[in-house]
Design brief:
two-stranded antiparallel ribbon; 16 helices; globular; disordered C terminus
């Protein structure tokens, strides 16, 4: 029965987000509330509104307000300071994100806004309280403050870094929060058998609704993007829910030894569900620092760009991100239900299958490269097979924003040329004479 109220909160967030997304989309198209320029790192080829984060924020805000009027959520709102802090931090992040989407702020300004938002959370008690060392260990306040600020800023930027394909962030966050909601709901039941309503579960439910409401306008080909405002917003709320759930494990709860392992999945689960964004973030920072650039400078070498360059279509690249997220997140969740070795086996098998699908285009690409090198010069020029020959400098000249469509056309051209070559009459040899 308690799930009904979480579904209600998610439904309100979804309905408001979807309705406002349509309204903002119409206004953006009518008054041209978007940049007409296409950046080199962008995958899309048409100017697209980037104010979806505003619709998501209002949907989330409305869902919180309605939830505050529901008796079953009264314990969550009994001390409103944490809710106010979360929403105030979210407002700051949305304002910073919208300003960046419009005026392209420098990285120091964006980082300052993120630090202020994280500081507001900590100031009102949304911070890391316990860690799984020697049972349930209370974190010293100063250390908890630093760890919380670092975690919030890290998660926000990790989510923002993968916001490069239609439906990618909304789908990944949706999958991650479904898993995290299940975890927070179950662990609350096991820790406090009579208390099903908690802040972490409510945040996750509302985020699920906001992502569901936004996906219809963000699915490929996207009519609107969530922009930095939306990506940073969902990252902030995911970090806040993960930090908030640590307060559900009491040092006097009587849970001991082996039973404590599942209780500290909130430390591991956010890392698990964000393993791909965090990996992309870490590689980007390393890559840019090594090149002597700012870690927040933009480029076209993110994981989603690499998937496209490998030969995946837009749709397949997004599904691969979904699959990696689901395998790791669900695998970690399984530690609550099955013996550890079964959970590990599930993760290993799932990751192996994901790896096969991720690397599959490389074998096809290699075959086309070999085929291109065997095509005659005249046929190569006619079929544009040079783009598949890694030894041909001209192969790089054809790459542009519309990579996927050109790739398909070139593949077909190479295969047609090879077919013509096989059908061509062979010169008679002495043996045949």
């Amino acid at each position: 029965m308690s799930l009904t109220y979480y579904v209600l909160a998610a439904g309100i967030a979804a309905l408001i987000t979807f309705t406002l997304s349509i309204v903002i989309l119409k206004l953006s198209q009518r008054y041209r509330l978007y940049s007409s320029s296409i950046r080199d790192r962008d995958v899309h080829t048409q100017p697209t509104p980037r104010l979806g984060g505003v619709a998501m924020f209002i949907g989330i805000l409305t869902a919180f307000w309605v939830s505050s009027q529901v008796t079953q959520f009264s314990l969550i709102f009994a001390d409103p300071s944490r809710i106010i802090a979360i929403l105030a931090a979210a407002l700051i992040i949305v304002l910073i994100g919208v300003a960046d989407d419009i005026w392209d702020l420098d990285w120091m300004t964006k980082l300052a806004g993120q630090l202020i938002a994280a500081g507001i959370l900590v100031w009102q008690g949304v911070q890391l309280l316990t860690i799984p060392i020697g049972g349930v260990t209370v974190v010293p306040p100063v250390l908890g403050l630093v760890l919380t600020v670092v975690a919030v800023v890290l998660v926000m930027n990790a989510v923002n870094f993968i916001d490069g394909l239609d439906g990618l962030v909304a789908g990944v966050v949706l999958i991650a929060n479904v898993v995290f909601f299940i975890y927070s709901f179950i662990i609350t039941d096991r820790t406090y058998q009579s208390e099903f309503f908690n802040l972490a579960s409510l945040i996750s439910a509302i985020l699920i609704g906001a992502c569901i409401g936004f996906l219809p306008v963000n699915w490929h080909p996207a009519k609107m993007f969530m922009g930095d405002a939306g990506a940073l917003l969902v990252g902030l709320l995911m970090a806040a829910s993960a930090v908030a759930v640590t307060g559900q494990v009491s040092t006097g709860s009587g849970i001991s030894g082996r039973q404590l392992l599942p209780a500290f999945i909130p430390i591991l689960l956010p890392l698990a569900v964000l393993v791909v964004p965090l990996l992309d973030f870490g590689l980007a920072v390393f890559r840019r620092l090594r090149a002597g650039k700012s870690p927040f400078s933009a480029d076209r070498k993110h994981l989603h760009h690499r998937l496209l360059d490998m030969g995946h279509s837009h749709f397949h690249a997004v599904l691969i991100f979904y699959a990696w997220t689901a395998v790791v997140a669900v695998g970690f969740l399984m530690f609550l239900f099955v013996p550890p070795w079964w959970a590990v086996l599930l993760i290993v098998v799932g990751l192996a299958i994901c790896s096969v699908f991720t690397l599959a285009p490389l074998s096809r690409r290699k075959a086309l490269e070999v085929a291109a090198q065997r095509v005659g010069a005249a046929e190569a020029i006619q079929s544009r097979a040079e783009r598949y020959d890694p030894l041909d400098a001209g192969a790089l000249d054809d790459l542009d924003d519309d990579y996927s469509s050109q790739r398909v056309a070139a593949e077909a051209a190479v295969l047609r040329a090879l077919d013509l070559q096989r059908r061509a009459p062979r010169p008679e040899t002495k043996e045949s004479q």
